């Protein structure tokens, strides 16, 4: 692999200072994304700041009122297996479990997953659907912004030079909400998603009170399907309304063709996935 | 250069590494431990699987400096005093390989699986091994080896000796 200087800070604050000292340098955590780009010659850094020796970045904290806080350096495996995540955010745990393979999940971090801004990934759509926020730190101090604003495009985020992701916050869970994450792959089982759909619904006496449907891996950022949400809210969905919802989903997306599927192909896949996700969260028979 | 000290197959090792060296390069080129293979080099195929503190990782995507003060187990460290690990014995008995390029990585993943989830059912076994590719297609034999390894491990724990 091409040579680069590796700086090894011991705290997040020190890491932020190192990043700020040289705007060209980038942070590296698990390395499972960045090292591939370096090996393939797509990205040729001079100087990387290694976050893996930072001691204060990996933690999972939960408070019933405040919700979940994931230290940026928490591994994807830790997210999928931590008892508090599994109990209170089972869909997030499932999406983490569906990332790549066990080896990558042991190395990759949730902060790196978000900071890398790769649209072909599983956790971002679930985090968008859950209304997660990203806490950053940098030369201008700390910031907190909704993940839907943080993710700006394929490999583009709101991170300013010298800034790093410190923590991911997920709002307190609503016990009356049911959710699901469906991943569709077109190559190996551990492949990046061709498409993914996260759906969360709160119903009252069979009537949809609130709904959040997000499609991932299809556009440069996760896409919230507001038309579908509006169509179903206040209604008692049946197979016919779900067919309409699927058609609305197909209209709402603007797919990017990639190695996992052409634009046309993704346009066929997404409505089916959306329908299946809605059937599951609404407890309707699969059609 | 970065000074690195870590435990490799039970022994403490120290060496100086460059920041861009992967663990795979260090294992093969510095320690001559060529049992760990490089297949895809991008974390997909599983031939470079080693255990880091008992958990499987892709050594091709792990900067060597990040194993500082940690425990690395490679295929060379599986057998103890010439006695095959139950996983190795099971792969032999089940002929769970053809060309064997994937075997070291497969065995390391199986070792981790049997430690993490000794009672894993068929689906869990397949899910855990989904990231280890075998281009000869010996998957069915690998699944048989997982079950055989579990039996052998249990037999050893119970003091029945290898059956």
Short summary of the structure?
The complex is a heterodimer of chains A (287) and B (163). In chain A, 35% of the residues lie in helices and 25% in strands.
Radius of gyration of chain A: 19 Å
CATH fold field value of the largest domain in chain B: Ubiquitin-like (UB roll)
Gross morphology of chain A:
globular
Task: Report the span from N to C terminus of chain A.
Answer: 50 Å
Contiguous helical run count of chain B = 5
Estimate the helix proportion of chain A, in percent. 25-40%
Uncertain runs of chain A with pLDDT below 50, 5 residues or more?
none
Biggest interface and residues each: A-B, 31 and 30 residues
> What percent of the residues of chain B sit in helical stretches (DSSP H or I)?
25-40%
Total beta strand runs of chain A: 14
Account of the protein in words:
The complex is a heterodimer of chains A (287) and B (163). Chain A is built from 12 helices and 14 strands. Chain A is α+β, with helices and mostly antiparallel strands and 287 residues long. Chain A folds into 3 domains: 5-50, 2-Layer Sandwich (Uridine Diphospho-n-acetylenolpyruvylglucosamine Reductase, domain 2); 60-170, 2-Layer Sandwich (Uridine Diphospho-n-acetylenolpyruvylglucosamine Reductase, domain 3); 177-282, Enolase-like, domain 1 (2-Layer Sandwich). In chain A, α2 links the parallel β2 and β3. Chain B is of the alpha+beta class and 163 residues long. Chain B has 5 helices and 5 strands; from the N terminus they run ββαβββαααα. Chain B has helices at residues 23-30, 86-93, 103-116, 122-129, 139-157; strands spanning 2-8, 11-17, 49-52, 55-58, 71-73. The longest helix of chain B has 19 residues, at 139-157. The interface between A and B is medium-sized, with 31 and 30 residues.
Secondary-structure map with pairings?
The complex is a heterodimer of chains A (about 290) and B (about 160).
Chain A: E1 5-7, H1 12-21, E2 26-28, H2 34-39, E3 47-50, E4 60-63, E5 67-71, H3 76-81, H4 83-88, H5 90-97, H6 102-107, H7 110-116, H8 123-129, E6 133-138, E7 141-146, H9 147-150, E8 151-153, E9 156-157, E10 164-170, E11 177-184, E12 195-204, E13 207-216, E14 223-224, H10 226-232, H11 239-252, H12 263-282
Helix pairs in contact in A: 10-11, 11-12
Chain B: E1 2-8, E2 11-17, H1 23-30, E3 49-52, E4 55-58, E5 71-73, H2 86-93, H3 103-116, H4 122-129, H5 139-157
Parallel strand pairs in B: 1-5
Antiparallel strand pairs in B: 1-2, 3-4, 3-5
Helix pairs in contact in B: 2-5
